Amino acid sequence: MRFTIKGPLFARYLFLVIAMLAVSIAPGPVAAAETPENFKFTKIDLELLEKVNQADKEFERKGLVFSEPEANAYLENIGAKLVPADLPENVKWRFRILRDSSPNAFALPNGSIYVHSGLLALLRNEAQMAAILGHEITHVVNRHGYLENRSQRKKMVAINILAAAGGVGGGFGGIGGVAASGILGGLVPSVVAATIFGYSRELERDADVYGLHAMARNNYPPIEMTAVFEILKTGYEVQLDKESRGLYADHPRLDDRIQYVNALLDSLPISGGPVVRAREYTKEMAPVLRHDVPLEILTGRARTALAVARRLTDLFPESAEDAFLQGEAHRALGGRTPSPRPEELTDSARGAVRKQLSKMTLQEYEKSLRSTPEGKAAWSANVTAAEAAYRRARTLDPQYAPAVRGLAALCDEDGRPAEAIAGYRQYLQMAPKALDAFRTRKRAEELEKASTAAPAQDHN
Fold first, then answer.
1. 3-state helix vs strand vs coil in the chain, percent to 5
2. At what angle do helices 126-141 and 144-153 cross, to 10 degrees?
3. pLDDT digits (tens, 9 = 90+) for 2-34
4. Chain centroid, CA 84 distance in Å
5. What's the CA gap between 214 and 200, in Å, rounded?
6. Which among 282, 284, 277 is positioned nearest to 310, based on CA atoms?
7. d(Cα 146, Cα 139) in Å, to the nearest integer?
8. Contacts for 432 with CB less than 8 Å, ≥ 6 apart
9. Which residues pair with 427 in a beta bridge?
10. Sequence ranges of the domains in the chain
């Protein structure tokens, strides 16, 4: 979801606007006269096809498509098993990884299916990936995007109100990420409401059911679809939003999906040995997981970043990069524990955090968090764990410069300027042409200037 105003204040404002519009544009079943078998393309449909083809190109042009060949080939291979034998008209199947930390996936009507790196990082095995892909394939096969577009074009007044409320966009059949929704919202404004509300529950259920059958045909245990929903419900972060919307964010909807999927499991036997492939999945997706850890940190999801980094270090204990990423995640936790404390999960605690964030910048909030007794204890533990991880990375590879920079930044944040300066200078010697070399040099100079000025101030 893309916001031009940040934070809980905007979320509350947007929710009020959505609630007002729901009276007039509450989602119901898409006009059902047409079925996939008798669907006929109209001028409106062909215009949409052109726009989503353009969206594919924009994703590539703006560097949003994750380009690691082996991970992409793995995703394509799983997707190819699940698609129907007959290729629908004006569909070219493409399965792609989107560089976005939000746990989501969406399908474009032209057959392009995007799975966010953040979702792939949460999934635990190949069967769970198959559950996601099978669901999204259904939206393409059953022409949900085209039918929804026809319906939403009649509601442009409401869409314009939503656009004015903050520029909201998203993916087909789920809330997309910031960059993706910006592209889709600009090219296909007639489906903005659908990206907020999702398709009707009937259509989403149909997509889940198709996914279950596709899983069973390929010996993926259908129960792994339930496991996906449980992972998405639990997560690693404290959910601060009062209202979560979208296929993979709406907890009440996830509860419904768990219930009806479980009811169908006995009717979906597999014909061979169960295909789960947990270890293989993590190995194949390792480049995606490594890419996702910094994205999670950048979006304020350090607990998720740490969970993903730990999976990597468990599987690749001799990887300096993975040890470094674990150090980065611990440092990003600041005054938080790796898992939410029970008191953080209460409604009153979440309300208090929302209130603080409405009055503070994120930096101010992080500073206040570390000033509490619980925050101080958590920061002390995170400093110890991060330092150990950085030093582990240096032991595995003495020339791994990012670990030197990470340790220096940790010392900087922990109020140890002399160690920070030495670390920054060592990093610049090891990686003089690094992209962050200028910023690192400036920070070292600031610390050096402050350290030389301090004695003079004390003397006065």
1. 65, 5, 30
2. 50
3. 333 344 433 443 333 333 333 333 334 444 446
4. 28
5. 21
6. 282
7. 10
8. none
9. none
10. 7-267, 316-391, 399-460
